[in-house]
């Protein structure tokens, strides 16, 4: 559970690092947007690296990546609607459902030769 929580927190930071400047940073020079994004991303790495180290004892590398991507998209959907004030269209929801189905298949069956 700590892996999932750390990945959620790291993805909040990374989403702001990558996309936060889109709302307020248009007047900034590019170098300022890059430096501020890197400063935020440093916090993300401080959470993501321990999350992956802890998680690798419980999940395979493939499963960790799939969990991370599902969390990334969930965090981004919330961010886009609340922070960027974008509309969540039906096709984005359908795409997210398909990714959820992909995550189900990643965890529902034991892969041959899996470490766990």
Overall pLDDT metric: 89
Q: Give Rg in angstroms.
A: 16 Å
Q: Provide a count of the helices.
A: 5
Order of helices and strands: HHHHH
- Principal-axis shape equals flat
Major sheet details: none
Q: What gap, in angstroms, lies between the N and C termini?
A: 17 Å
* Helix fraction by DSSP (H/I, runs of at least 4): over 70%
Number of strands: 0
Which parts are unreliable, with pLDDT below 50 for 5 consecutive residues or more? none
Q: What is the structural class? A: mainly alpha
**Beta-strand percentage range:** under 5%
Taken together, the total number of domains comes to: 1
Account of the 3D structure:
The chain is an all-alpha fold. It has one domain. It is 77% helix and 0% strand. The protein contains five helices and no strands. The protein has helices at residues 2-19, 21-24, 30-55, 61-82, 90-108. Helix 1 (2-19) runs antiparallel to helix 3. The radius of gyration is 16 Å and the shape is flat. The two termini are 17 Å apart.
Write the layout of secondary structure elements.
Blueprint: H1 2-19, H2 21-24, H3 30-55, H4 61-82, H5 90-108
Keywords:
single chain; 116 residues; mainly alpha
Summarize the structure.
The chain contains 5 helices and no strands. It has 116 residues and is mostly helical. The model has no long low-confidence stretch (mean pLDDT 89).
